[in-house]
Give the backbone structure.
Amino acid sequence: MNDDDLIRAIGIDLGGSAIKSGLVSSNGSINGFSRVTIDRMAGSEYLLENLQAEIDRLTALAEERGLQLIGVGVGSPGSIERSTGRIHKSPNFRGWDDFPLRDKLVKMTPLPVYLANDVNAAAMGELKFGAGGDFRNFIMITLGTGVGGALVIHGRLYDGAEGFAGEIGHMVIAPDGPECPCGNNGCLEQFVGAPALVRRARELLEKIDLTGPLAQIDPEEITVEEIGLAAADGDPVARAVLAEMGRWLGIALISLINVLDPDCILVGGGIAQAGPPLFDVIRRTVGNHAMSGAARVVPIITATLGPRAGTAGAGALALWPELTASG
Amino acid sequence: MNDDDLIRAIGIDLGGSAIKSGLVSSNGSINGFSRVTIDRMAGSEYLLENLQAEIDRLTALAEERGLQLIGVGVGSPGSIERSTGRIHKSPNFRGWDDFPLRDKLVKMTPLPVYLANDVNAAAMGELKFGAGGDFRNFIMITLGTGVGGALVIHGRLYDGAEGFAGEIGHMVIAPDGPECPCGNNGCLEQFVGAPALVRRARELLEKIDLTGPLAQIDPEEITVEEIGLAAADGDPVARAVLAEMGRWLGIALISLINVLDPDCILVGGGIAQAGPPLFDVIRRTVGNHAMSGAARVVPIITATLGPRAGTAGAGALALWPELTASG
C-alpha cells in the first residue's frame, strides 16, 4: 500500500430524506458509509448539527484507521453561488434559502471544504467513478421531484459564471405553457417533474377505466416511483404518462444536443429506473430530430452509480478540486 | 520590434458574398486585408481556386515583409466535423455539402491549417480581440439569414464532441411550430431567421396601412437589413417585427442562460445593428424570466468587431490552436 492509497475525502450527500456520508478514496470506494435519516423541514440549525456529527464521526474514523484526509466535499440541494458558497434557492428544505452554507461548514473542520449543488456532485461522481468516465463532454439529468441538470465540458464540471449552470428543468419548451414557480411559463419541469407526472396519472385514471396495477392504488397515494415501477410492469396508464414525459424530455434534449453536441447524456433519478418505457420514447424523439453529426446518435444512458453516487461524488469534489472550479 | 511582433497567421473568412483575408497579428491588427467578391453558387472548384489565390497572395506578402507565418485559419459556413474537417451541411453554398474542405486546404500550403465554422471563428475573434475578452464563458449569437451560435467555455472555444455545438438556431422553442428544413418543428430559426422576418414584415404591411419608410419599398425587395435600418428610424412595422423577434429570441436566451449561466451574451450579424428596438425587447423578456443569480442580470451586448471580425477570428484559430480544440 503506497501513500496515495491512504488518501481519503469526507463525502457528504445531503438529500431530501437522509444524509449519506463516508470516506471516499480516489478509486471510488467508500469506508464508513452511513445513512442518517433527517427531517428536511426541521430547519437549518438542525441540519448543521447533523452535518457536524457526520464530519466528526468520519474525522475520528480516518484517524483511527491511519487514513489521510484532504478535504470535505458536500453536495446540497439548491442553487449555490460559487463565489460566496451561499445557497441561493432551495425550495425543498426549510431554512435553506439564501443560507451561507459554506461559511457554516468552514467552521466545522480545519480541512478545506468543497461545496456543490447535489446534481453537480452526482455528475462528478459519474465522471470519476461511473458512466461518465469515458466521456469528456456530457450532460447529466436527474429526474426526481424536480428536474436537475449538470454539465461536464472539456473533461471537467462546468457550473457557469456564478455556479448556477445546469438548470435544465427551467428550459422553456412551451412558451404558452403552465406557469412555473420560477416566474416563467412552460418550463420543462412543469411537464416532467414528479408533481406533473402524478397529476397526469390521476387524470388518465379518471378518464380511462383500466385495471392495471396503478388503478389499484388510492389516487392520492400515487408517487412517481410507483408510476415507474408500474410502467416497467406494463401498466398502460403508467406507460402513457411516461410516453408523454419522454416526448417532452426528448424535445428539451434536442435543443441541448443541438447547442452542446455532447458525447452522451446520462439520466439519473428515481423515475429513470422505469427503463425502456421511458428511454425508448426519449430516444425515438431525439433520434428523429436532433441535428448532430450524420453518422452519430448521441447515446442516452442511465447513470450507473447507485444510492451512494452522491456521497462518492461529494468526495470527488474534494479529491479533484481542479476539475470543479469553472469560474 | 521583437520576434513575436513578426508572427502572423493567414486569416480567411469565407462568407456568402466575399472572401475576406489578411495577415493577422496577435494583437488583432490585419496586414494586407482584401475583400474578393465571390459567387456562392459557382461550386466548390471555383471556391477552392479563390482560396488558393488568397493563400498564395498572403504567403508572398509575408515573405516580402519578413513576417513569420505560423498557420492558416479558415472560417467557413456550414457544420464542420472536427475529426475529419469535412463540411457536413452548408445550405447556402453550392457544392459545399459533405465536402472534405480541410483535406483540400492542406494541399494548398505547407503551413498548418485550422478550419472552423464561421461563427466559431467569429467567437474566437471576439474572445481574443473584441467584446468577449473580459469573459471566460460566453454565448455568441449571429443573426443573419440563419441564426448562428458559438460557445466559449472555460476561456476557450467549445465546439462539442464532434464539432457541431452552437446550433442555437435549432433550439426548439415551439414544438408545434412551423416545420424547419432540419427535420424538426418550431426551431428558433423559423421565428427569427431572415426569411421569417421578411415574411412577417410583408404580412404586417398588407394588414396595416401605414406610411413608415418600410411601406415605401416594394414588398418583394424588403431585406432584413432594411428592416433593421427602418426600425432604427422608428418605422412602426419594422419595430413590430423586431419586437416579435426579440421576444422569441428572449425565450431561447432564457433557456440558454438557465442551462449555461454565461458571463455574457454577444449578439452579432446584420440585424443586430438595429440596436435598441431589438435589444430592449430581448433584455426585457430575459430580465423578467431567467433564473440566474438574484443580484445579476446577464449582459446582452453587441459584438464589437466590425466587418473584419471573421478574418481576425480565422487568424486567431491559427494563433491560439490550444483554445480551439475542445474534443
